[in-house]
């Protein structure tokens, strides 16, 4: 009898959400667009640009035919 009640509860839970769409929000700003994330993204981009310029500058200085 106990197993039958558990089975009925599981089936009832599955039926409740069968036709529903996932919960969404219409907020324009969420966690991805906060100031801390904006700063982190620009810092990563700045580090990538500096690393590229250092690499390109190193190659430029060591290649005799480019200068």
Architecture overview:
The longest helix is centred in the last third of the chain and has 28 residues, at 35-62. The chain is mostly helical and 67 residues long. It has a domain at 35-62. The chain is built from 2 helices and no strands.
Main traits of this protein?
67 residues, 2 helices, mainly alpha
Output the number of helix runs.
2
Question: Could you spell the SSE succession in H and E letters?
Answer: HH
The chain-level structural class is mainly alpha
Biggest sheet descriptor: none
Total beta strands:
0
Beginning-to-end CA distance, first to last residue: 87 Å
Estimate the strand proportion. under 5%
Furnish the topology, listing elements before pairings.
Elements: H1 2-16, H2 35-62
Short description:
The chain has two helices and no strands.
